[in-house]
Amino acid sequence: MGIKVYGPAESPNVARVLLCLEEVEAKYEYVRLDFAAGEHKSSEQLTRNPFGQVPAFQDDDLMLFESRAISRYILRKCKSDLLREGNFKESAMVDVWLDVESNQYNPPVSSIVIEEIFKPFLGGAREPEIVNTNLEKLEKVLEVYEARLSQCKYLAGDFISLADISHIPFTYYLMLSPHDSLFDSYPHVKAWWEDLLRRPSIGKVVAMFPGFM
Ligand code: GS8
User: Fold this and answer.
1) CB under 8 Å to 112, separation ≥6 — which residues?
2) Ligand 1 centroid from CA 154, angstroms
3) Mean pLDDT, rounded, of the chain
């Protein structure tokens, strides 16, 4: 049976998992769910992800949800160096910056992307106040990133890791939004993002998005 990923590729948390699979060149089956038809809330899907969210992931008899946990599983299984597990100090730094991505970066960036990209696409009205509040929060986070990335090339150190890769999906959408020049004020963040954009895994996952992106 092997690996199966459930959820639309253009959904950022699904894209995080797909990026990891592409990074390690794993074989997998992609099961696109139709959000509009509510397939992510079906009783079958609820057995895979009890929160009725995507992604859901299966590897033979193992079922997982939560995109960052799935990502770690894939990288461990495929013995990727993106977790730096051969060095406990480096892997601790990967953990720190993965938590930073999840707890500091993701909340404001995802709120902005929802308002600027997903809501308009679904016919909803953008709420400028939400955008402005979260831009302020994101700018404060980016100041910390700028300081960090002026000390080392990637977030966890001078090596690329899952901590960097995990930023790609929402940042990709941020760069499709009216805030695509946000990183101009943070030259080290901008250089880091331009470096990440060169990863072939991104093109492979974006090729799975439907036409609207
Ligand atoms: C978040 C999953 C999530 O919010 C993770 O996997 O990292 N912490 C979890 N999924 C959204 C789509 S964004 O990719 C989702 O499924 N939304 C539909 C819903 O909540 O009904």
Assistant:
1) 131, 134, 135, 138, 174, 177, 179
2) 26
3) 96
Please name the residue whose Cα sits nearest to atom 20 of ligand 1. 53
Nearest by Cα to 23 from 182, 207, 205: 205
Sign of CA dihedral 82, 108, 198, 33: positive
Q: At which residue do the structure tokens 């970066």 appear?
A: 105
Q: CB within 8 A of 174, min separation 6: which ones?
A: 109, 112, 113, 180, 182
Which residues have CB under 6 Å of ligand 1?
11-14, 40, 52-55, 66-68
Q: Which atom of ligand 1 is nearest to the CA of 66?
A: 6
**Tens-place pLDDT, residues 56-115:** 999 999 999 999 999 999 999 999 999 999 999 999 999 999 999 999 999 999 999 999
Ligand 1 atom with the shortest distance to the CA of 169: 14
Burial 8-23 (b: 16+ CB within 10 A, else e): bbbbbbbbbbbbbbbb
For 172-208, give one letter per residue: b (16+ CB within 10 A) or e. Answer: bbbeebebeebbeebebbbebbeebeebebbebbbeb
**Cis peptide, bond prior to residue 55, ω within 30 of zero:** yes
Tell how far the Cα of 54 is from the centroid of ligand 1, in angstroms.
Answer: 5
Ligand 1 center–CA 18 separation, angstroms: 14
